[in-house]
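**Backbone shape codes:**
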Amino acid sequence: MPKVSVCIPTYNRANFLTYAVNSVMRQSYQDFEIIICDDASTDNTTEIVQQWEDERISYIRQPVNGGRSRNMRSGFEAAQGTYFIKFDDDDALTPEFLEKTVAVLDAKPNVDFVCTNHWIINQNNQKNEAATQENSAKWGKDRLQGVIPDLLAEAFIYQSLQVGSTLFRRDCLQAVDYMRPEADGCEDFDLFVRLAMAEKQGYFIPEFLMEYRMHGGQTSLKQQIHFLKAKSWCLNSYKFRKTELEIIRLEKLAGIKQALGLRLVENGDSAEGRELLNESSQALGFSGKVTLAVILSYLPMSFRQFFMNQFRKFRAKDYAEKVREVVN
């Protein structure tokens, strides 16, 4: 039985999968299995997997595309390790990730999972130092070290933690039912919030032991809408005992509804978009941006798209957009 199960869910990313799998094969700690879960890819993923002749690698191919969460669950259900990590097919682990995270779980039986900081890399596997530091500061990772004192605050308020850079005890994931299909697209946030609500204990290693890739394939309007709908579902599913957390939950929900409403208007779903914008404005108040979006929702799609494209040309780009612009 392997000590660690490494799950890599994939879908039509054969061009990145080799880098992801090889990052595990090069670990300084070698007591692992790799489970590649393929959500019915239509590219050459199957052929890519065949290059590895290693009994530690297993390949699960779904008969039909059933969504990220269901695909990930298949890998979790097949896992045999005491410890478990899932990271995406376009990401990677640095060579000492398993060695250092396993050491913490072995030495600290009360710790349920170990998170690490991570590098930002581009589509060419290049590390971006500036983006890495900005990302770390944005999500508050640069202030964490050792046992996480207020896990619910870090998971729910600051959203500091990431599943792909975390090694879990598999039994703690079983206790909270791992990935919920309804949270598809927002699984990291949902899983950590539910672990915190179940009073699990997390530990943070401030070293950059994982590589998170930013590239253009992550940013379509369809993907944004899918994520925002999933996050709205998650926020509606929680109920906190503390009044201050409930207030924050409702504020977050209003903000997500506003963001979703804006994107639905851009996508042509005018009535649904206006409804969400009106709902969110009851909590947040009307802003110039929302008012303009409501006006745009009554205009032809060609005008909306022209206006949105012009807006994006003049808006200052953040570090993530700059990294995703890198091309071969």
